[in-house]
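To the team - adenosine-5'-triphosphate complex, inputs and output below.
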Amino acid sequence: MKTIKVHVVTPDGPVHDSDVETVIAKAESGELGIMAGHVPMVAPLKIGVIHLKNGKTSEYLAVNGGILEVRPDKVTVLAQSAETAEHIDYDRALRAKERAEQRLHTQSNEHVDFKRAELALKRAMNRISIVEKRY
Ligand code: ATP
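Output:
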């Protein structure tokens, strides 16, 4: 099967480069499955998992938003953060989840930015889902 190049770039620099058969990503508009020869497009991504599939092997990246650009032979992901399971600090993610939940459960309080806490919770749960293999 033909493969497509995948580049994942964050503000810290490139974090992933590979050739895969399929890229499955969660765009704001819904789930996208991309293979070589896909029509060029740009799509904003949700906080979610990017699944890179090559035959029977798969790799998963926890991605914090960003943009996916598709060209016929290349997919580029520009994201604020992106980590594979081995780069995720599970305890840190659990602590981030707990902090965000505490903030969200605080009774109406002008010092709590609920939208910010909600996004932090999503990022933490996304990371946890990769480590726990609940994609
Ligand atoms: P925290 O509150 O623990 O910092 P966060 O969701 O606010 O979590 P981000 O702003 O998404 O963190 O990421 C900041 C940087 O820290 C990025 O480089 C990201 O890859 C890294 N990072 C955040 N959480 C983790 C984690 N659990 N494991 C590994 N790297 C992480």
